[in-house]
Amino acid sequence: MPKSALLPLVGLGGAAGLGGGAYLLHKNSQPSPIEKPSIPEKKTIQDKLQKEGFQILNSSEGQHWGTLKDAYNSAKSEESKVFAVINSNIDENKLKDLCKSALEKDEEDASYSKAKRWCVVPVTVTVSDYLSKLGRRALSTASSGETDKDQWEKLAAKYESAPDKIASVTSLGADNNKWSTLRQKCGELGAKKNYEDNFDTNLASSKVWCSV
């Protein structure tokens, strides 16, 4: 083939190369898509309570709702305890509505302590399955026998000099009875329920002095 015939082909090849390079340059110069920042999942009061080991009360558990409704009506005029101060008593359905609204709020909302009081399956301070979720075991508070005596004695030996004592228990008395006195006080403390006053304080004391 004459050289003159190759020139157009060379030109075409060069043009094709330039065109391909331009295409790649154009493609590579496209801005990367902007990633939208991830939005943290909202944590609710219900989430927080469940994480702490509480069981949310469902609408069909009539016995518990009845107990809580009666306790709620007894405290209805105390702003720090109820969702809203009222003059008349509420029924179970109203309490369920109040709980539904509170449980859906952000976990840091001020309704948290009230939801813990009125919207979960009632528990005592030392109920065994609740403490186990916190990694603790409640010591035996049976008034007869010496179950867990070694653990009680170790705790009693530290009690007198400790700053964080059980409320209203400043001393455990005579040395030889300190462990049994502590056991008795823990039995009284452990019977306190979450819808009664000072549950958090009682729970904290129970974790320190009544469980291992």
UniProtKB/TrEMBL annotation:
Domain of life assignment: Bacteria
Name by which UniProt lists this protein: Uncharacterized protein
Organism of derivation: Mycoplasma haemofelis (strain Ohio2)
